[in-house]
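Q: Second attempt. The first request was missing the SMILES, so the protein and magnesium ion are both included now.
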Amino acid sequence: MADTAAKKQRMRAATAALKSMQHGPPDGFRVVVCGKGGVGKTTITALLARRLAIRGKKVLAVDEDPQQNLAFSLGYPLEAAEDLIPLSRNFDYVEEKVGARPGEGWGLMLALNPDVTDVVDRFGVRIDEGIDCLVMGSVVQAATGCLCPENALLDAVIRYIRLREDEAILLDTQAGVEHFGRALAEGFSQTLVVTEPGRNSLHVALHAAHLAADLGIPHLHLAVNKTRNDADRTKVEAFLGENHPFESVIYLPFDERVLDTEPSVSTLLDDASPFMEGIAAIEKMLLACSQSDRAVPG
Ligand SMILES: Nc1ncnc2c1ncn2[C@@H]1O[C@H](COP(=O)(O)OP(=O)(O)OP(=O)(O)O)[C@@H](O)[C@H]1O
Ligand SMILES: [Mg+2]
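A: Got both inputs this time. The predicted holo structure:
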């Protein structure tokens, strides 16, 4: 329990620090997608990215998941997997930017605010005209106060990404919620928490939502994926109760076709299935929130 209290306190301090930075309100379309392992984060992120690109938006899809599936879900060829070098494993770039190579930087003076404006041009993978994908790689969980070179770089990249204008940015995160302990969510205006109907992933979803709210992300949405029947829905509703923190709750059914189309989500895009209707509903909700933020700044 003491641990939880300490974590909350750290989170509040981080929130206050973020607010005091006075960057102004997050603008545009900045969505962090999180939730327990295997619930469908990458599938949903890829489908949203593809749909937004079809709509004419310029999309930057950022993969923070150590499994690095996002590019393949977006349609990047498996044969070209070797070309995908995550930033955290790009030792030369890490050293060039923060002054130390991964594995040797603990306790050294690292450049904490390096200029990473070249990162998407140099390391973004072009999926098609409308979508670039940036593979971040594993984040080492640093003890409080410690920073390793690769984390220093990834933090800088995330801080820089929020400044890119006219782009829809979708951040697919690793399972769990640990990344919220760092300033990763800075500048993101919406959180899409993905869950399955089971209690375990719902617990993680609620935890993630509270952390995101503590970090000051204004919009929280819940996607309940892989629902099989009305009983699932009733269970989720009972679990959430009336005072849950989500602005919207959208249900997506379990659908064998989603499994069948792996790794790329491309063939699902033209489906008129209930699953794709759920994706369309999420997209609509995210777009509506980002538009309302733009209409009423601050
Ligand atoms: N609605 C659905 N119906 C059936 N299968 C689904 C559905 N959504 C996702 N899946 C399948 O569930 C598995 C996990 O999906 P995905 O990789 O998107 O989850 P994830 O949350 O990103 O996982 P991880 O935490 O490992 O990164 C995949 O096999 C995917 O095809
Ligand atoms: Mg994933």
